[in-house]
Amino acid sequence: MFYTFSRRNQPPIYPTASDSEIESQNSEVLIPEWESSKVKSMLDTSYQLKSLLMFGAYYHQKKDGFESVVIEHLRLNGAYWGLTTLDILGKLDAVDKDEVVSWIMECQDESGGFGGNIGHDPHVLFTLSAIQILALFDKIDVLDVEKLDVANLQNEDGSFAGDMWGEIDTRFSYVAICSLALLHRLDKINVEKAVKYIVSCKNLDGGFGCTPGAESHAGQIFCCVGALAITGSLHYVDKDLLGWWLCERQVKSGGLNGRPEKLPDVGSLILFLIIIDRVHWIDKGKLVNFILDCQDKENGGISDRPDDAVDVFHTYFGIAGLSLLEYQGLKAIDPAYALPVEVVNKIFLAK
Fold it and tell me: What fold is seen in the domain 2-349?
């Protein structure tokens, strides 16, 4: 049996336990009549070019500049956010694929994992970003998948460490599961134990924390729900209870906060609202307006909230959110794998 979405480009199907878990398959997430008064002006007409320039500055900036130094340790993540944004905008061909792929491979440690930059220690977070970028360019075949050590990071209780130092977090569970799924290597881990650990992190409000008993947080919920979707385990999610918690995150401005009493933020909530089919419980038009208000129309990019400085992280989540809300002119993105649907389909439907 399968979990799916009604979208203009059909994303990959997520196997689930039974037919009863398939809810509202034909619900439409397209906001009716984009020209209506509910939705403000479209993305700035020159926005795509500005986003390209923003990524170019991020990737090619002088290595001795202040910005370059402070982000050096996570440049691989930044490349994923920027490149995926470009692909959603249909502008990925603006970068030199061979140059990017060559740099990605230089970030690989002798242990098999990837660091945030050349010469940095490997971590599962950067390893997933490397795999995702290679997937964007259809270059996963350059990887020696047997060399990657992701499966070795699983603990006896099903949890995953981020690296050799052993920190445990449900983010790492998602990252490991997503990485292995994209490589067709989920059989290398104990999926049953991985799912059991994630479920042990579920709270009474329907959300998930970073470890058992930890506070529900939007970022952790995305990771847990995404991992459960990929492993065909969405039947463990109380969709109505979690959907209620999530829709309560929308504030008057239309934005969504990650936890109660926090400021709204352009973040990941829209991804798992789509996965659990509860996006119709929020005001989608107001959310679109909030994201558009976070644009820097002079220099490009999207910030966490209006009038703040833009960054490549929130630019990615803003554009991905608009894509999931069926914003015109953007490629469809898969909410579980956080990659364009056409990229994910090529990985799973080609074999």
Answer: Glycosyltransferase (1.50.10)
> Contact, 161 vs 112, CB < 8 A?
no
Domain ranges of the chain: 2-349
Distances in Å between the Cα of 325 and the Cα atoms of 50, 222, 260, 316 are 22, 17, 23, 14
For 274-329, write each residue's pLDDT tens digit: 999 999 999 999 999 999 999 988 888 899 999 999 988 999 999 999 999 999 99
CA 268 to chain centre: 7
Q: Which two tokens stand for residue 176?
A: 């490991």
State pTM to two decimals: 0.85
Residues with Cβ within 8 Å of residue 57, at least 6 apart in sequence: none
Residue 350: other Cβ atoms inside 10 A: 7
